[in-house]
Amino acid sequence: MDIRVAAKVNLSLRIVGVNPEGMHELDSLMASAGIFDELSITRADGITVRFSGEYADGLDGVNNTAYRAAELFAKKFAFNGADIKIVKNIPLSAGLGGSSADAAGVLRGLACMNGVSESSPVLRMLARRCGSDVPFMLSGGFKRVTGTGEKLEPYGSAELFLIILPEKNGVGARDCYRAYDTLAATSGVRAYDPRGNDKLLAALTYRKPVGGLLHNDLYLPACTLNPQIARNLALLRSVTGDAVMTGSGSACIAVFYDSASRDAAHRELLARGVTGLIKTETV
């Protein structure tokens, strides 16, 4: 079975607090973006995961979320195993959800191969065990994501055009959340505004400027780990006020309502010598 899985972007990521299990609870607006990892899954005895593609360097065949997803599925549904090949087109440690997309793709593929509905509560439970972004990645789209990633509120299509600027030195999600906790304990962090994402949703609905509403509580801690993120965000904000870091970094995104404006900004950045840009849209 062949399957494509999309990246994601966080238009807003607000940390609500920490639950009794020590996990961060979020209020985030997430949208699927048109960068895809490509999976090929066949039945086999045992589980193997092999990576290829632009962003495959350094990936381990066992210590990854795709392998964990297959292992959890096999244990739950008495499935012998699978040979899984993944072409990595989504940048790593960029806040674009590449590893979560792979786990979701494995779960979707194995579910289809074994007659399990993609809407199965058991499949959603396995997704939660793989990682906080994996439940969103199972279906993608444009959703408000709360709790520890398990609560999904769908909206219509975001219909946004994007420029993504990855940073070659990625930021690990665990490291970024740890830096957030350190920052919160020492110098304090911005208090959660429950109306923030309501305002952003309204602005997106009526196609209003969103620069002041795009927000990421992990931006400052990510910048302590990789200061280049701040410079990259400043580059994007020099061509549009509507830009933000996605996820735990290190990629930053610029947001546009039409392709012409996006393409003009892209040409300007290229003319200024900016490299590594990805031009895409929400899907």
Notable traits:
seven-stranded mixed beta sheet, 28% strand, 9 helices, 283 residues, alpha+beta, Ribosomal Protein S5, domain 2, four-stranded antiparallel beta sheet, Alpha-Beta Plaits, single chain, 2 domains, 35% helix
Low-confidence segments, ≥5 residues, pLDDT <50?
none
Proportion of beta-strand residues: 25-35%
CATH fold descriptor of the largest domain: Ribosomal Protein S5, domain 2
The proportion of residues forming helix, as a percent range, comes to 25-40%
**Number of H/I helices:** 9
How does the overall form come out from the CA principal axes? globular
* Count of domain modules: 2
Provide an overview of this structure.
- The radius of gyration is 19 Å and the shape is globular.
- The protein is α+β, with helices and mostly antiparallel strands and 283 residues long.
- The relative contact order is 0.18.
- Helices cover 35% and strands 28% of the residues.
- The mean pLDDT is 95.
- The chain has 2 domains: 153 residues, 2-Layer Sandwich (Ribosomal Protein S5, domain 2); 121 residues, GHMP kinase, C-terminal domain (Alpha-Beta Plaits), CATH 3.30.70.
- The two termini are 22 Å apart.
- Strands 1, 2, 3, 4, 5, 6 and 8 form a 7-stranded mixed β-sheet that branches. Strands 9-10-7-11 form a 4-stranded antiparallel β-sheet.
- It contains 9 helices and 11 strands.
- The longest helix is centred in the middle third of the chain and has 16 residues.
